[in-house]
Amino acid sequence: NAGVMQNPRHLVRRRGQEARLRCSPMKGHSHVYWYRQLPEEGLKFMVYLQKENIIDESGMPKERFSAEFPKEGPSILRIQQVVRGDSAAYFCASSPSVGLAGYEQYFGPGTRLTVT
Amino acid sequence: QQQVKQSPQSLIVQKGGISIINCAYENTAFDYFPWYQQFPGKGPALLIAIRPDVSEKKEGRFTISFNKSAKQFSLHIMDSQPGDSATYFCAASVSWDNDMRFGAGTRLTVKP
Question: What's the confidence (pLDDT) of residue B73?
Answer without folding.
Answer: 97
